[in-house]
Design goal:
Layout (H helix, E strand, L loop, with lengths): L1 E3 L4 E3 L5 E5 L9 E7 L5 E6 L12 H13 L4 H13 L24
Antiparallel strand pairs: 1-2, 3-4, 4-5
Length: about 110
């Protein structure tokens, strides 16, 4: 099933129970906009990360530039984005491990945006 807000969209399998969902945010800081959990402890958390100094704890300047080019200039690949996000998540002290599940692919919203 598809969940989303003004600034984001994600498709989750039916077994996920959503415990938090924000339609939009106005703060310029990292914000968790979706939290969902499936039986067996599998979790999905979607973070909205602003670019600039506020994101520097999660993404270095080269990573921010790479993501901006992908989403705003259509340069780069889904594989590069997945690698950047896995690397960023792996730096978080609360994350024990990261692993990619399946192949990264391009998705577009209803207006054609990446």
């Amino acid at each position: 099933r598809e969940r989303g807000g003004v600034q984001w969209t994600v498709t989750l399998p039916e077994e996920f129970a959503v415990s938090r969902q924000l339609e939009s945010i106005v703060r310029v800081r990292v914000e968790q906009v979706l939290a969902a959990e499936a039986p067996g402890g599998l979790q999905c958390k979607l973070l909205l990360v602003p670019f600039g100094q506020q994101a520097s704890g999660s993404l270095d300047s080269d990573e921010q530039l790479s993501l901006a080019k992908y989403f705003f200039d259509a340069q780069g690949s889904p594989t590069e984005v997945a690698r950047t996000m896995l690397t960023s998540a792996g730096r978080s002290p609360g994350v024990l491990s990261t692993a990619q599940s399946g192949e990264a692919s391009l998705a577009r919203d209803g207006s054609g945006r990446r």
